[in-house]
Amino acid sequence: MTKNIVYLTFLLFALFSACQDEAFGPVIQVGSPPTITSPAAGSNFVITEDKALQDFGTFTWTPVEYGFQAAVSYNLEVDLASNNFSDPVSLGIMNATSLDVINDKINSVLLAKGIGGGTQTAMAARVTATVNPDVAPVVSEPLNFNVTPYEAEIVYAVLHVPGGYQGWNPADDATVIYDQKSNGKFEGFINFPDDNTEFKFTNGPSWDVNYGDNGADGTLDKDGANIIAPVAGVYRLKVDLNALTYSILRTDWGLIGSATPAGWDSDQNMTFDPATGIWSITLDLVAGDIKFRANDDWGVNLGDDNANKKLSYDGANIVIGEAGNYTIELILNVPVYTYTVTKN
Fold it and tell me: How far apart are CA 326 and CA 102, in angstroms?
């Protein structure tokens, strides 16, 4: 009798365990990551303006197997090979295992990253596979290839910023922020002249696709509530349409550096002109270096890495060659931030 009881107990436990496994659903078994099969590694491409709208090629990759029928989302990304995907650009997110890309898209990516026309450049592509937000993505090995772009004026994608400060007009081209690197991340500076200014983001010059924030938590919601800038001023707006997140930062800009009267100890405050959208200051400088800082802090600062009047965050010092009285302008209402240095 005792043996029968033990046997029945074991049988019930086994049945219970099987039911438990089934109740929890299929177990994800990640097999091999995707592998990019075309283009061939080391391929060379030369893009010319007359073929801008023609096919660059088709990127294809092997599927990921999870051990059960699953809707896998694939994100095809590219970057400069030297960047190790520190600043990737998404070419598309899809459920298929291939994507056709035109020449103009690759050309725009390279130009936005500062690559000049006629310069052969090593690029890398990778595919990230996602099946569930709670499961870590599976990433392919990078595939390297070479591209020579052509020189062209960069047309930046924009997000419109309609709000109470400009009559809630999404078609106003003067109140936009820019996708500076063709990666779905937008940034720009907007002047809100009044406290508690309400605004939204629209993907185009209409209300068809608009974003607000229902929870005031930095997450964008389609057709969401108005976003509020609590204090009047010039705000840096950043939007990531890939993650549907945003941030706003009120900024006051100043000049700092060994060429200024206070050296590297404190800023010389600049003045904002709401008519032109330009920050400026006139002051005496000595030979030395300068940089631009926001809010008397190094958290947001701009310099010039290539001495070409193109500003970048945490960029190199700007050299002032000789002493004199100067007017310095900081121009942030453009896709690529810039500045002028004029000796009076």
Answer: 47
Measured from the Cβ of residue 275, the count of other Cβ atoms closer than 10 Å reads 6
CA separation for the pair 57, 115 (Å, rounded): 21
CA–CA dist 282, 234 (Å, integer)? 20
pLDDT tens digit string along 16-47? 444 444 445 555 556 678 999 999 999 999 99
Report the predicted TM-score, pTM, of the whole model to 2 decimal places: 0.74
Per-residue pLDDT tens for 268-297? 999 999 999 999 999 999 999 999 999 999
In angstroms, the CA 288 to CA 276 distance is 29
Do residues 328 and 344 touch, judged by C-beta distance below 8 A?
no
324/304 Cα distance (integer angstroms): 21
> CA-CA distance, 170 to 176, in Å (whole number)?
9
326: number of Cβ within 10 Å: 20
DSSP string, 55-109: EEEEEEEPPP--SS----EEEEEEEEGGGTTSS-EEEEEESSSEEEEEHHHHHHH
CA–CA distance, 319 with 288 (Å, rounded to integer): 6
Q: Are 44 and 57 in contact (CB under 8 A)?
A: no
- Is the peptide bond prior to 39 cis by the omega test (within 30 degrees of 0)? yes
pLDDT single digits (tens) 179-198: 988 888 999 999 999 999 99
Q: At 176, is the secondary structure helix, strand, or coil?
A: strand
Q: In sequence order, what are the residues at sequence separation of 6 or more whose Cβ sits closer than 8 angstroms to the Cβ of residue 312? A: 302, 303, 304, 305, 337
Say if CB 224 and CB 266 are below 8 A apart: no
Q: Which domains, and CATH codes, for the chain?
A: 36-148 (2.60.40.10), 158-251 (2.60.40.10), 253-343 (2.60.40.3620)
Q: If you ran DSSP here, which 8-state letter would residue 141 be given?
A: P
